[in-house]
Amino acid sequence: MASELQPARGTHDLIGEDQRRHSHVVDTARRVAAGYGFDEWTTPIFEDTRVFSRTLGETSDVVMKEMYSFEDRGGDPITLRPEGTAGVCRALVTNGLTQSLPQKVFYAGPMFRYERPQKGRYRQFHQIGIELVGPSEPLADAEVIACGWDILQALGIAGDTVLEINTLGDKASRQAYRDALVAYFTQHQAALSADSLARLDRNPMRILDSKDDADRRIVADAPTISGYLTAEAAAFYARLKTHLERFGVPFRENPRIVRGLDYYGHTAFEFITGKLGAQGTVMAGGRYDGLVEEMGGPPTPAVGWAAGIERLAMLLDAPPPAPATVVVVPVGDSAEAAALDVMQNLRHAGIRAEMAYRGNLRRRMERANRIGARAAVILGDDDISRGVAQVKNLATGEQEAVALAEIAAHLR
Ligand code: ATP
Ligand code: MG
Predict the structure, then answer these.
(1) Quick one: which atom of ligand 1 is closest to the CA of 281?
(2) Residue pair 85/306 in contact by the 8 Å Cβ criterion
(3) CA 56 – ligand 2 centroid, Å
(4) pLDDT tens across 131-169, in order?
(5) Are 316 and 355 in contact (CB under 8 A)?
(6) How many CB atoms lie within 10 A of CB 214?
(7) pTM of the shown model
(8) Closest CA to 270 of 289, 253, 247
(9) Which pLDDT score is estimated for 260?
(10) Whose CA is nearest to atom 11 of ligand 1?
């Protein structure tokens, strides 16, 4: 009967090596981000639906067709968060932190999108992300990107990725560009997908991000924003590039990057890889100066990124090794009390130690080998009466008698 119960489509369990890869990504990112001055926040996994529907853009894929939204038992509209930035901005406003800027936020946790599951694309997936709220200088954009680059370096996967950057300009630039796009796409209306047609009036820049093949052919010849940038927007972008060079982060420009969510302006960027097939974007972000205001706060500049933990974990070359444990083996019932003392001493000294609950010496040693234990501490009655135990190095097979009080020091 139990076998009929499968994980919900698009979800997966993290066990063993999968969990170790996942934890390694999060721990590494948290450590590197802390070095850049980012503090971790944990915001709720579900929010009032309006936190997302108002801010991500009503024509974005996420809002149009990917959100897990429902009414709870009290009739409140609830959405499982599809991304992290909106919740962080909501938290900034509701905790009164818009007057204490800058805020530098790191987060990690599950996100939910109703998507067609495939390699690197799930319905429950996990993201790490950082948000730098307050500074409007392009140096902040560069720093956020440099932090992402350093995390990829620390994970040993930077060499598998390429950073692509673009500018979405300021409001005036986008207005002029928008008009140009509407004119262009209107000429090609007949060949556009239904989704893109729906976006033509409301948000034609989103068409640039379409994954539809026919759309992509039309997009290939669409005008780029570079011809429509105001002097200020062009200067912002130029300074970003200078700073990135200063930080030593290699990049290439890609005028097609618009990002999937509507709240971005000026900087947009993606770290992409050729190693994950169609799901090639591992880390993506940009500047979102209007979002905090849409959440009911004052106008507040901000820039950040999010990265898919599953995609980063897949790129890790070698899985982090399973932790090596010490197995404590009492020989006979009367040795069990001494074994417990030894085991707790090891644990309190910070050494991972375990004991099988039952079985004779042979069974217990077999188990120690099976779980890859690095050492066994074997306690027989004779040894205990002499105040020693046999400590066996399971890698080399060497065994020696060690005073009970010295075992932790011996194994460290
Ligand atoms: P994509 O173009 O792959 O759909 P996106 O533009 O929707 O990505 P973002 O909203 O920018 O993605 O999210 C940032 C990162 O989160 C992505 O680059 C990716 O690594 C990861 N991500 C997004 N959606 C999923 C998903 N359904 N499953 C796994 N990872 C995801
Ligand atoms: Mg998507």
Answers:
(1) 18
(2) yes
(3) 12
(4) 999 999 999 999 999 999 999 999 999 999 999 999 999
(5) no
(6) 13
(7) 0.93
(8) 253
(9) 62
(10) 284
